[in-house]
Amino acid sequence: MLSRFVMSLGFIAGLSPLAAQAAERPVVVELFTSQGCSSCPPADAYLRELSTQRADVLPLAFHVTYWDGLGWKDPYSMQAATQRQDLYGRRFGDGSYTPEIVVDGAAGMVGSRRSDVGAAIERAKRASRTAAAISVTKNGGQVAIQVGSGTGTGRILLIGFDREHTTAIGRGENSGRTLTEANIVRSIRAVGQWSGAALRLNEQFPEGQDVAVVLEAPDGQIVGAARLGTGGST
Questions:
Q1: Model pTM score
Q2: Third-level CATH fold of 3-227
Q3: Under a CB-based contact definition with an 8 Å cutoff, are residues 214 and 185 in contact?
Q4: 111 CB-near residues (< 8 Å, 6+ apart)
């Protein structure tokens, strides 16, 4: 069943060496999910496919907490995921539910409806709202984040995620199933504010095997993104 819980910048600019990459930045696809939700596995499978088949997409699975008291505590649930979805729910006026996919911070929809999500991804690619190009590299136990010059302002989010986990579910709506899930977010935090000038940050490697950096405009839409890639933590 589809469970619902009501819980209730601009243009590529500048001469940065990253500017040529700006128009090619990945579309950010955020799935809000839970291992305790019986309608979530199809959306989880779709996100897993996106993670292996679409280089133009940055898929991230945020496991929410509000299913944890309903028979199965999701080992990857985070309060930060619940809070992030709640912000989207307030913006979109649709509360918080699973499975939900939010594309580029601009549109929310049922995560298992592949045609709707696919169309939203294509719309996001055509809209090409990219304020600045971003790169992220690993240096020992740190990551170096470079944000190019551009127009607008935004909050820089550092996201750590695990590439894949397989879990045997012992209780709850998915009891007896074995779920394989991809790009599970383990941490998310704001690490800086971008105001149009090129910026470089050095941060501790976050919890998780891999790293994504997202530039979020004041209205909540995603206007820049990059992934460290398979060279992340081992």
A1: 0.89
A2: Glutaredoxin (3.40.30)
A3: no
A4: 31, 32, 33, 40, 43, 46, 47, 98, 99, 100, 101, 117
